[in-house]
Design a protein that fits this description.
The strands form 8 sheets. This protein has a 6-stranded mixed beta sheet with strand order 4-3-2-1-5-6, sandwiched between helices. It has a 6-stranded mixed beta sheet with strand order 12-11-10-8-13-14, with helices on both faces. The chain is of the alpha+beta class. It has 19 helices and 28 strands. The chain is globular and about 70 Å long. α13 crosses α14 and α15 packs antiparallel against α17.
């Protein structure tokens, strides 16, 4: 920083494609700070260092940051933004550096404008300073094979998807669209990779015009089948880094029109093109196309979740038997996660996990995105609440399910909190709403029962789920983030339903299903809009041992019993060869 006359340096969590989950080589913020949660931003000055993260990670960050760091708990009263903090701690006319590949266009503008009152300036530093410090210890760039996804799983050809994008480009009046999101590129070309753990994506850029499509990728990563599929779709292959030079050339040859870029496009790409005057900044058309699943994808979600449900039943049956019958006192949280992965790996179309399993017992359950580690994690016991949030990637779908159990005797408060979480879960599942309503509007249904007791949770109620893609998918969701009010829920979208409650230092509760938005017939149709609701595809028993039946409304009790009838009908045929799991399923799905 001193050598480059930089007074502060910003280290985001994201990679050059704004990925939520990143490859090891892009873990710069974790390397420099020691905090390895998925969300956070670090700022280093010549005298101080601060890290911002959200409510999911307050506990984790407080444990992982050492005394060199100031933890800034985003969203709490009195906590400054990074811009406010920089304006306070830096001397006037300071220079704030950032890697232009790692900052989005809106973020760069906001940051630059926010620094002006203190006469600070934002400076692009093309050589990443953390990488220089990391040196030879930095993991290498992923070079994993990229394979085609058969149309029997995708439900739509790459040619048809490119046609949809070109129609959107024509309507927008631009000369092309630059695709930067890794999941969008994978979806658009019906390809899947493994460059980021648990996310079947690969590092690439794409440029789509009205008469061409270019995929920028290390060509050696493409299998023969993938290369052939791209050739059949008339997709040209160019080197990954070539996009920066190409944008400059294209920008000069298309002076009469602009290039369409998503707001998540990097400042470096805009600079390569020739500046903001050559860009139309608007949400990627692929974001919307990808979020609305076709009939093949929806059936894939149903099928994969039944197989996944059977594996979860096997795991919970095994775990309960080990704890209560065999009196096994040596099963760690990691052991549990590994066992669950093994059960899943035996199922048809299994590829891998969709995220690191959150196998958490007791106080660890209150750490919302906890990750157990060998040597430091707790032992699972029958005396504490056990929260397991897990998911898998299958060729025909992506799963994400959370269940909370107590294998001993829960306290009255644990049962009350659990039941209030369940009530919120049920009300979301039962929701019927007019077309045009957003997840921001219906979020209150998940929290009302908790609010009435003075309880709440510090995370969203639901996120979109990719189809054999990223487990977190936008642009929609259910939650209190105002951005969710910009995107109405639409037929075919997937979204999770996962209210929770977390008692710091004691236990955590979360109940999560994946749902598909569907049309709902209603007696009336005010305004002629039509109505929507949800179809849950997750079929895993919800612990009735933790339910205080007296707190349930009649419709909620009826829902739970019908849900368990459905779970048993769909999952039991897959457990015929596993007597232990089948008996556990029978027990857990009994009516209350």
């Amino acid at each position: 920083m001193k050598q480059r006359s930089i007074d502060a340096y910003i280290v985001p969590s994201e990679d050059a494609h704004q990925s939520e989950y990143i490859a090891a080589c892009d873990g710069r913020r974790a390397f420099i700070s020691g905090f390895n949660g998925s969300a956070g931003l670090a700022v280093v000055t010549l005298k101080e260092a601060a890290l911002w993260t959200d409510g999911r990670y307050f506990l984790q960050a407080s444990k992982q940051l050492d005394t060199n760091w100031i933890l800034q708990k985003s969203g709490l009263a009195g906590v400054p933004s990074k811009e406010e903090w920089l304006n306070k701690v830096l001397a006037p006319n300071s220079k704030v550096g950032i890697d232009p590949k790692l900052v989005t266009l809106p973020a760069a503008r906001t940051l630059a404008e926010s620094l002006k009152p203190a006469s600070h300036s934002l400076v692009s530093v093309t050589e990443n300073l953390v990488d220089l410090v990391w040196g030879s210890d930095r993991p290498g760039f992923p070079m994993n094979p990229v394979k085609p996804l058969d149309i029997k799983f995708s439900g739509k050809s790459a040619e048809a998807k490119l046609k949809d994008v070109r129609l959107a480009i024509e309507k927008k009046g631009t000369w092309g669209f630059v695709v930067t999101g890794l999941d969008e590129i994978a979806w658009l070309f019906n390809l899947r990779g493994n460059d980021i753990v648990c996310n079947p994506v690969f590092f690439a850029y794409a440029l789509v015009t009205l008469d061409s499509a270019i995929l920028y990728i290390h060509e050696s990563k493409l299998t023969k089948e993938a290369a052939a599929a791209l050739a059949a779709s008339s997709v040209e292959i160019r080197a990954y880094e070539q996009i920066f030079a190409d944008l400059g050339a294209f920008g000069k040859s298309y002076m009469e029109k602009k290039l369409w870029a998503d707001p998540r496009c990097s400042l470096a790409l805009q600079d390569a093109l020739g500046g903001p005057a050559l860009i139309v900044e608007a949400t990627s058309p692929v974001t919307k196309f990808k979020s609305i699943k076709n009939a093949t994808e929806i059936q894939g979600f149903r099928d994969s979740h039944v197989r996944d449900g059977a594996s979860l039943c096997q795991y919970f049956a095994w775990l309960e038997n080990e704890l209560l019958v065999k009196k096994n006192t040596s099963i760690s949280e990691v052991d549990g996660a590994d066992k669950l992965e093994w059960f899943r790996s035996q199922r048809e179309n299994f590829v891998g996990l969709s995220f690191d399993t959150i196998s958490s017992t007791g106080a660890n359950g209150s750490i919302i995105h906890y990750k157990p580690e060998h040597g430091t994690c707790k032992t699972i016991t029958a005396d504490e609440m056990y929260l397991c949030d897990s998911g898998a990637q299958y060729l025909d779908g992506t799963t994400d399910c959370t269940r909370t159990h107590h294998f001993g005797t829960p306290t009255a408060f644990e049962k009350e909190a659990y039941t209030r979480v369940l009530k919120g879960h049920i009300q979301i599942d039962l929701a019927v709403f007019p077309v045009g309503v957003t997840g921001y509007v219906i979020d209150v249904l998940a929290r009302t029962a908790l609010w009435r007791a003075g309880l709440d949770f510090r995370h969203g109620t639901g996120h979109g789920v990719g189809h054999y893609l990223n487990v977190h998918e936008g642009p929609h969701g259910i939650g209190m983030r105002i951005a969710y009010n910009d995107v109405p829920l639409e037929k075919g979208m997937t979204v999770t339903n996962e209210p929770g409650y977390y008692e710091d230092g004691k236990f955590g509760i979360r109940i999560e299903n994946v749902m598909v938005v569907k049309e709902v017939a209603t007696p009336y149709d005010f305004g002629g809009k039509g109505s929507l609701g949800f179809e849950h595809v997750t079929v895993v028993p919800i612990s009735t041992k933790l339910v205080d039946v007296d707190l349930l409304l009649p419709e909620e009790r009826e829902w739970l019993n019908k849900y368990h009838e459905e779970v048993y009908a769909k999952v039991s045929p897959l457990l015929k060869e596993d007597e232990l799991a089948l008996k556990w399923l029978e027990k857990e799905t009994r009516a209350i």
